[in-house]
Amino acid sequence: MRNNYNKKKITFISKFKLIKYLLIFLTLIVASFYFYDYILEKKIHREIIQEFSKKNDFVLASYETNELIRVDQSEVSKIINKYFGKSIFLIPLRDLSNQIRELNWVKDVNLSNNFKSKIFVEILEYEPLGLFFFNNKIYYFSKEGKVIEIFYKGETFIFEVPSTRDKSALENASGIDKIVAPMPGRVVKVLKASGDKVNEGEGVIIVEAMKMESELKSSIDGTVTEVSAKDGDTVDLGAHLITVVADDAEE
Question: What CATH fold (topology level) applies to the domain 128-245?
């Protein structure tokens, strides 16, 4: 019987070829990273879009907001102005919205643009529920219980909404309720005159602060003995307004 043998040819790669293949492999890896970083990360696209936008006036040049009552317009401007001169197509509206949403009194925000050079900003503001002065602290809060920052004479006050109002703490041991301005503002209307009788919880004066009116009430039954303000007066934080003395107050 005739045997057939398969002969295998063994080939050795030279050192030169091995180095050449290794260099080609490394080049492909470097090129892949460059492609990902420069192409897939859209750096080229961004440069092209920005250049196109400049030539054709598709860069942010202005913005428009709805009427704002409590939100600081200048703070909104600071955020948006950083994007002036940038292509209207490259402005990250979501990031911009999140930055504006962090401002005081901003409940929600909606942004849109005209695909030319203008951004439209619609801001929904928190509605204040009320404010009052208690234990030398100002409580100013929204219906949602949001903590509000108040700026007064260069200082920042951060106050939380109390869960309950401690009636006994509000009443002076001697039966005297001295009502003061809870924050800088204006007297809208004095509701009681000296000598008038008042009941606990009855309004005695209306003040306006940060474009919101608040009726300040007596914490005790008694008689108005002193009125230190009149309609239209501008008052500072803690300024005395009205004093109510209980009928059985200690002399």
Answer: OB fold (Dihydrolipoamide Acetyltransferase, E2P) (2.40.50)
